[in-house]
Amino acid sequence: MSKKIGVFVCHCGTNISATVDVEKVAEETKKNNPRVAYTTTYKYMCSDPGQKLLRDKIKEEGLTGVVVAACSPKMHEHTFRNAAVKTGLNPYHVEISNIREQCSWVHPDIPTGTDKSIDLVRMMTEKTRKDKSLTAIKVPVTKRALVIGGGIAGIQAALDIADGGQEVVMVEREASIGGHMAQLSETFPTLDCSQCIMTPKMVEAAQHDNITMYTWSEIESITGYLGNFDVKIRKKARSVDLDLCTGCSSCWQVCPCKKIKSEFDMGIGNRTAIYIPFPQAIPSKPVIDRENCILFKDARKKNIKPNDSKVCRKCIDACPIAPVKAIDYNQEDEIVDVKIGAIIVATGFRELEDGLYGEYGGGKYEDVITGLQFERLASASGPTEGKIKRPSDGKEPEIVVFIQCVGSRDPAKGCSYCSKTCCMYTAKHTMLYKHKVHDGHAFVFYIDIRCAGKSYEEFSQRAIEEEGATYLRGRVSRVYKKGEKLIVLGADTLTGSVVEIEADMVVLASAMKAQDDAEQFAQKLSIQYDKDKFFSEMHPKLKPVESSSAGIFLAGTCQGPKDIPETVAQAGAAASKVLALLSSDELEREPVVARVDRQLPPVFSTCIGCFYCQKVCPYSAIESEDIKARDGSVIKTVARVNEGLCQGCGLCAATCRSKSVELEGFNDEQIYAEINALEFN
Amino acid sequence: MSEETKKTKIGYYPGCAITKCSTSEEYGTSVLGVSRVIGPELEEIDDWNCCGASSGHATNHKLSTALSVRNISLAEKDGYDEVLAPCPMCSQRLIVSQDDVENDEKLRKEVEDAIEMPISRNVKVSNYLEIVKNYSMDEIAEKQKRKPEGLKVASYYGCLLVRPPKILKFDDPENPKTMDDIVKAIGAEAVDWEFKTNCCGGGFTLSRPNVVIKLTHDILEGAIDAGANAIAVACPMCHANLDMRQQAIEKEYGRRFNIPIVYISELIGLALGLKPKDLGMDKHFIDTGSVIDTFSDIEK
Fold first, then answer.
1. Residue B125 and residue B164: Cα distance in Å, rounded?
2. Mutate to test the interface with A, among B167, B174, B177 (most CBs of A within 10 A)
């Protein structure tokens, strides 16, 4: 029985109708295609009356196939298929003909837009004729979430999921959770202390019954698929037994290696070799830095087990735990296997390295510091206990120059994007500086001031009007040292003059960059990333927390620069997506997956087992399968698609040399029908 | 020309500023003098013309490009794979023009019509520092006869050797080190200072002397404050501005610098035992005697 196809053409307000004569599209389609039983147009097909029209006509006209000529299928394919389901029609008989994104939006006039739309609709009508009913794939769900990263994004997401009653495994590669937010002194636009709002959340996460925390640990591998991930976590050797240690501080007080630059203090403070990153760290238990510890250095040199070295045993001697000490020099990395249903990636950002800007000293001058270093200077828990002292000689700086957009909005240095937070944190820095050094003077060089956010504009105006920071619109061309001063050469483009400032300290509003290993990590997870190595969301507007892989979500600055409120909101959104996933025992997946053909004996399958498909599959969804005879002997080895992993990209189908792989919903018959419709008319 | 000789010989493009009887003759004289001792062998390109700098590239892009690439095409015709243009204005013009025609097919055709020659794609243009670094570092160590004592040199690169970095791709544009390495190789101290690539004012020395006096003052002061007792350059324009303006600076700022400005090729020449006069060191405004006197024979 041939299909009765209905075509519904959407105006999309004027988005489509401005350059496509939608009435003519409907008319021509009806006139020239005998299989089209019904056509109509409507202002907004996606609206409730539009969907009702679709449902009613399916029933009234007895339609067995539907083409909606509207926007991209990424936008509303789901909407219209759902509408069709309510009438009893299998949703895979509903197709979208996209006459907006690649048609009405890009063509300048009605004749071209209309002609192309007619062609596009005809193609999709022909495809619809060949559509088959498909049923959703059901997969079981492991009710446990993995959160990668223990900064504010990870903590918030973990707490939200745990509060929703689901188990969470949290992995943090540093020795403590807390991330960058724990490093900040005060936060904009309220100037409330970052530690005071962050540390309680850290404690809450650590004590939550539903959260299992792995610090000093990294993701070794992730395999599996939505609802059924197998995750291996590498617990790096901490050299300290977390169960035995009480965090009494005896060990790090006696450690003789005291001059190691503290990562937490961004290199302007020191730490010991056995250390906790900061006093409020969670867990509040130390780790041994094996690179810098003299005992481990000695063991490496002599090629002996660390515990056999006698160079320095001060920390283990000082450890009061008995009879077994909490310190174990011979501890080794441990791999933990966990089964996971959904994943939130919250791996954060890194601050732009010093060296990129040779004109600002390129990391040569101690008193040219980054934004995060200034945070540590201003922080009460920092190396100067919150007193603003310049790193070179500890003097209080009388003149501080803040340079915005260092590494942001600078395509010449390979960073074309805006880091979004710097305008606000620089305004905050000028205030913190003025609050602590009353006679001091702050200069800010800026390109624009971008303070879009609740109470943000008022905050930056306060810095200028009430706190007396001098804002100069222009770039700084050079910073160089002259005696004890730093000479800052810049332009004031509002007065058209060259400015030369003798500063005591320069603070660079350094850009937020993707983590160094973001690219490799994305590949490990099979998620996409953008040109700046930030992880890509599925859709910039409608799927902002979904990654390109099903079941993996994004939160915080690993997806792009953002401030704390936005990070927290995104983490909450990601958590709610995970909770929704974990709320059911089984998940339904789109049946648009590839299949390797199976035939009756003696052929069994036309697959020749070359496994080219396996090489091109970006989702590791191709497995091998032995077809066996009754006696157990292998007749042939062929490819098999794991339905849970397959994302329906079609690369395998295109690659297959023996035409043995087909993509459901996009099989050869359907695609050729589309192409022929264009070719022979 | 055989393959063998083609490799060792480099086309020499003097340009207007350093050719015989020009204002910066001593740069050319010392570059050629040094090359006669330690190589690589330099041969003047036959029939070379202006590189198209200054008035050329300020008035007509096509004209200046045609002037530039003609020299490169001549070099290829003479069989050279590499051309040395010691004046950075020349080397920069030649390289940028090569890049321009490489990225603009229309310009390429127009220029080829104008110079009535195909444009070479294979000739590499080098500045003097590159030539020394790539060919002569070992030779300097081998053939050095005299060594300086207490000579502290601020290496001044100026703007043209490193900019525009995307096209020239030579050294770190903000903190270049090649000249410092050469200074160290002959046994002098390379002073770390802040003004390596600052602008000397260039051609504005004639039209806006007040601007040039300020810029050169900052550079000279920076070198002196960093402890230098000589400034090394590899650019005739830089040399002219720094060497010639010291009296005017004294009038304006009341500070007498009297610091010798020497070409890097002159320093290498002194180290190789060449006579100062043969290197043209008697042609400077600021007496170079204090630099020459730091050199003494190496005892073997």
1. 15
2. B174
Tell which CATH architecture fits domain A350-513: 3-Layer(bba) Sandwich (3.50)
Contact A362 B175 (CB under 8 A): yes
- Are B73 and B109 contacting, i.e. CB atoms less than 8 angstroms apart? no
CATH of the domain at B56: 1.20.1050.140
**A630-647 CB burial, b ≥16 within 10 A, e <16:** eeeeeeeebbbbbbbbbb
List CB contacts (< 8 A) between A483 and chain B. Answer: 225
Chain A residues touching B173 at Cβ < 8 A = 358
Residue B55's pLDDT band, with cuts at 50, 70 and 90, is confident
Domain span at B193: 140-297
Q: What is the CATH number of the domain that holds B281?
A: 3.40.50.11810
pLDDT tens for each residue of A616-671: 998 889 999 999 888 889 989 999 998 888 889 999 999 999 999 999 999 999 99
Q: Express each pLDDT in A417-426 by its tens digit.
A: 999 999 999 9
Q: What is the ipTM of this complex?
A: 0.80
For every residue of A569-599, DSSP letters joined together read HHHHHHHHHHHHHHTSSEEEE----EEE---
How confident is the model at residue A588, as a pLDDT? Answer: 84
Q: Any bridge partners for residue A42, and if so which? A: A10
Please indicate, yes or no, whether residues B26 and B84 belong to a single structural domain of this protein.
Answer: yes
* CATH 2.30.30 assigned to A5-129: no
Maximum CA extent, chain A: 93
CATH architecture of the domain A594-664 equals 2-Layer Sandwich (3.30)
Q: Kindly state the average pLDDT of the residues A495-507.
A: 96
Q: What is the pLDDT of residues B113-145, one digit of tens each?
A: 999 999 988 899 999 999 999 999 999 999 999
Contacting B with CB below 8 Å, chain A residues are: 357-359, 362, 364, 478, 480-483
